[in-house]
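Please describe what follows:
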Amino acid sequence: MSTNDVVARLAAANPIPTQVPVALPEPLRVPRRRVAVAIALAVAVAVPAAAFAGRLGDLLGITNEGTSVSTSQVLPGQDKLDQALADMNVGSTMQLLGTLNGVSFYAARNADGQFCLAIDHVQQTYEKGVLCDLNADNFPSADVKAISFPGGLQGVAADGVATVAFLDGSGAVLDSTPVVDNLFVSDQRFGPGEAAYLETLDAQGNVLTKQPLPGS
């Protein structure tokens, strides 16, 4: 299935109209990162994930191995999103990494080894979705130490990352939040293009990576 086919399916999975325009990937210029994204009120959905029974935690590449759960439990009641995951051949299980500030995180590797992430704002009906890093150097790697939804700091960080931040095009900090058990959540939201970079820092405040965000 082509990336364009994936994006079309994700756009169709959007369960409600929103005031924020759906931000679908445009042809990206190096070094912009490629992700498959559809918006369900500031969340994203992505490409096929395959379950590696008994080994998913090890293959995630982070200390937080999580707990294996049925994919049907990841986005309960979201029929269109569930169908989108099924259409993209998501495996039968994902790893529940935990819940932070009311957001539950799930992760898996797809058949190509790409890192896929799902979030569920458990107290909110529509802030749910998944994304997947489509790049060869996908998370975690030397240059990619965090993966986040572009509309807000909500994602997973590599071991050794203590803080993540969104920067604008000039490098000014728009938002930052600590990392807890490889997870991070902020309640601030940004429109398309407002945040240009995702920055990661260690416990001493040293910058580890400065990753261009898609669409910035």
In short: The chain is about 10% helix and 30% strand.
